[in-house]
Amino acid sequence: MKILGIESSCDETAAAVVEDGRRLLSNVVHTQIDIHKQYGGVVPEVAARSHIEVINPVINKALTDAGCTWDDIDAIAVTYAPGLIGSLLVGTLAARTLAIIHNKPLYAIHHVEAHVYANFITEIGGVGDSEIGNGLKKLAPLPSSQPLFPMLALIVSGNHSNLVLFRDHGDYELLGQTQDDAVGEAFDKVAKIIGLPYPGGPSIAKAAENGDPHKYKLPKSKLDNPYNFSFSGLKTATLRAVQAQTGNDYTFPSHQLAELLDDVTRNDFAASFQQTAIETLVDKAEKAFHDFSPASVVIAGGVAANQELRRQLRERLPLDIEYAPMQLCTDNGAMIATLGYYVAQKKDPVDPYDFEVTPSLSMTKTPWA
Ligand code: KG4
Ligand code: ZN
Fold first, then answer.
1. 54-111: per-residue pLDDT in tens?
2. Domain-embedded: residue 222
3. Prior bond to 325 cis, omega within 30?
4. Residues 186 and 294 in one domain
5. From ligand 1's centre to the CA of 367, what distance in Å?
6. Ligand closest to the CA atom of residue 182
């Protein structure tokens, strides 16, 4: 079964074709990072306009790169939640229209759940030596096999920090989630404070390579539910430490702090923040591992690209974790198409004439009845 996956929930316009929920045939991602960089974050209206401009070419390229015509496609899967409303509307309208004119079943996909399914891609197909989507040929090795259930998933992205226990496809329990800022959001905000470019995750990771992770002592939050996350306090503590380091107090404009830092201090802040943020994630993953004895552990979302996170998990968990390649950790259509396959086994397609986006939808509400 070949599924076309369409993703447009935030600042990536993406489409991909995946066969049988495991074989990647194409993966096309148009990122808007350069557009939003100048604003230091994603501007929703600008994002939606950019999606409109590129969605059709991105979808067409995904089909061409997969060596598919519409006759070869069995179904369409599209992100309908959560995300920016204008961005979600562009992808879902494209998917609904294509489902109607090509008479294909349409499946509605939860973006955060889909991040986990990047880990189910274990093979690459596509059309021989021809170009098969940006980056596909350069992917790092794929996992050697699909994850086993029960599966513990640590989902860490720009908008989500979730620990989820999957008993089967569509049968999961949300153990904990962020109470305020998501971990990726904290990376992005701290990067801004210390003067590193957007997106903050990769730039903090890079700066941290040359910094001292123990230079500044930053706090880990303590919460009633040990699986919940809170990163807002860590972000504020970093801001206060930067103010103290530069001899300022809270009245000093925070957007002017960065220019007072030299490179050594900036790198030390990046490394100290990253150390505390990553340690927090690993502490909770380790506790869940011991409490629930999962058969496999997967990491998903943009922050899963973080090498320090991978290193600490390797050190502290007594099982080998296989990772999806970085291009499949950040937003992409392949994860949408992959989850679409498993949804199609258990659920009816949605009505393309009567189908709405849901900008805000926690994973608690989505296990597939
Ligand atoms: O999953 P994603 O592409 O989009 C969302 O659904 O949010 O995640 C984007 C987030 C951003 O906050 C970005 O700063 C973060 O992932 N990120 C990283 C790294 N690469 C991307 N965070 C830490 N280390 C990285 N190497
Ligand atoms: Zn995402």
1. 999 999 999 999 999 999 999 999 999 999 999 999 999 999 999 999 999 999 999 9
2. yes
3. no
4. yes
5. 25
6. 1
Asked whether 162 lines ligand 1 (CB < 6 A), one says no
Are the C-beta atoms of residues 123 and 24 closer than 8 Å to each other?
yes
Ligand 1 close to Cβ of residue 133 (< 6 A)? no
Residue 82, ligand 1, Cβ within 6 A: no
- Ligand 2 center–CA 329 separation, angstroms: 8
Q: CATH number of the domain that 126 lies in?
A: 3.30.420.40
CA distance 242 to 236: 10
Task: Work out which ligand 1 atom sits closest to the CA atom of 159.
Answer: 7
Could you tell me if 193 and 280 lie in one domain? yes
User: 302 C-alpha vs ligand 2 centroid, how far in Å?
Assistant: 7
Residues of the domain holding 25: 2-145+326-365
Same domain for 172 and 306, yes or no, is: yes
This prediction's pTM: 0.92
How many domains are contained in the chain? 2
Confidence (pLDDT) at 19 = 97
Residues 202 and 171 in one domain: yes
Q: 120-160 pLDDT, tens per residue?
A: 999 988 665 545 565 666 677 899 999 999 999 999 998 88
Q: Flag whether 321 is in a domain.
A: no
Asked if pLDDT for residue 168 goes beyond 70, the answer is: yes
Instruction: Indicate the angle between helix axes 263-292 and 232-245, nearest 10 degrees.
Output: 160
Q: What type of residue is 212?
A: D
Ligand 2 centre to CA of 184 (Å) is 10
